[in-house]
User: What shape does this take?
Amino acid sequence: MNEWKRSHYCGVLRSEQAGRQVVLMGWVQRRRDHGGLIFVDLRDRSGLVQVVFSPDLHKEAFDKAGSVRNEYVLAVSGMVRVRPAGTANPNLATGQVEVLAQELRILNRAKTPPFYIENGVDVDENVRLRYRYLDLRRPEMQEALILRHRVAKSVRDFLDENGFLEIETPMLSRSTPEGARDYLVPSRVNPGKFYALPQSPQLYKQILMVSGLDKYFQIVRCFRDEDLRADRQPEFTQIDIEMSFVDVDDILSLMEEMVARMCRETIGLDVPRPFPRLSYQEAMDRFGSDKPDTRFGLELKDISDIAAGCGFKVFSSVVDGGGQVKGINASGCGSFSRKEIDDLIAFAAIYKAKGLAYFIVTEDGVKSTLAKFFNEQELGAIISRLAGKPGDLLLFVADKPQVVADSLGALRLHLGERLGLIPENTYNFLWVVDFPLLDYDQAEGRYVAMHHPFTSPREADIPLLESEPGKARAKAYDIVLNGVEVGGGSIRIHRRDIQEKMFAAIGIGASEAMEKFGFMLEAFEFGTPPHGGIAFGLDRLIMLLAKKNTIRDVIAFPKTQSATDLMNLAPGNVSPAQLKELNIKLNIKSNPPGAKTNRAT
RNA sequence: GGAGCUGUGGUGUAGUGGCCUAACAUGCCUGCCUGUCACGCAGGAGAUCGCGAGUUCGACUCUCGUCAGCUCCGCCA
Assistant: This one.
């Protein structure tokens, strides 16, 4: 590098800098060689600027520029000048100017990259992930990471100004029952024992409240060894927050302020406050989801009362059996072909719906193979409940409430997207509150905590813990943005007697509770303040703000759906010596070690 | 654990039983070109069609299996 120092980023140059001597460093975006004149677009994180090499003025630099190729790393010393009349490029931020190169240094050469370094590339994700360092050179990827930084900074500033302390908690923790599968780390010093990577710093942050730290936050990595999705990675980042001496409203209003400020500071978006609040029940009833996307209508309508007495056995028997019948109005879809409707039925079947009854509304009433099972009055009532107009397609599911909600909720989203009902540039934040405290786990034959076992029931519902646990509601809340759960939290139990009732309700006995959470229960006996908190999924938040479809696009080094890293091929094998040191013996049935470590070709 | 989609020169695609000695675009290489900015023009190299079996006289094409990526169900308090 010698004595050269970069003077400017490429993307900042404007006509104000005309006449200035500059030193730029960056990558070759493109070279346009006209024989007697060479243009090089030089790129760095700030953007592009055109560099001109002229043989008449600086022969040596011109000759060197001839050997330059895409992605070479250059240092250019030259003079900024306004481009000759008629040659400005209005599509480029720096398009009014160019840099006349006086001296060129090729700092490094580069192999031809496997894909273009530009926005909107349509390349197999295999290739992008294997060459992630090249993928991350693309401006849209850099913008996402920059946005991520700015969101984190905004949140950190806000919390700091509001008296929160950023406190680190251990990554090497211990496995606890309930919740997701843990990532385990063997302890060399303690043979046969394992640390668990935290699913979240939940227990630590509550202990910090016991310690009197009052207001805590952390932007922290969390780990869950579960199957991946577009919005789920094995390691992800939470904005984790906990405060003492607060109740639900204190937390919700402060968080609204934080979120609103963050949106304003990062993407210039004004979100109206207060955010709407929906009870869990209302969300399920109207949208079939506990994370409703309220950017469009297509709400679910209950026709169980009409269906109960009708002649269509499938409907009436479901209602008799305690189920429900609900429908949505796919407005204007009355012209769907048999195949299109079959596809909708198949779609609903993914969510366990055994069928999909449908009515086509016409000028002369209902067209349906099922119409004969209903009398005029019933048909009229159904149409009016779903606000059916001629040309509409009414779709119904009759089943247990869970299946009805899952299938119609999913169908609603599917149709909303397909029919183009979802507006761009709309950000609908809302709270879902009053979650059930417990959820019955069929497989295990017991109740499990819907949120986590330290979630406080609503005061009025405490007696229900022993009588009808399924009916108890929690002081828990989720924050939802455009149908994506971007955060959730609760007021915690701070009294030992209620905590014990909670453990009892979810079938954790006194001895198990002591073994797994003994330290916590003991801590709670030393003067625990009422407290509560929330955690935001930073990756999901950024994904939505950056308008991406997957959190992989806002994480620098994400993993594939099979939890591997295609760049460094993690997870990898370890040496027998390493295993021996950890007292671990492998017991692998089929795949020999290393079977899956070959590069995708 | 399950369902679906995808896999063809570096990249993106076309080809769906013989017409394929695999096409197109772009990228790459060489030459020419002094105002381009997706520069242009001319020429050239580059693929045993993810992998393995099977069916067939014949497989990029059909079947089965397998691997990889993606989407989803289960799972994820």
Observations:
- The CA atoms of residues 188 and 582 of chain A lie 5 Å apart.
- The first strand of chain A starts at residue 21 and ends at 33.
- Residues 590-601 of chain A have pLDDT under 50 and may be disordered.
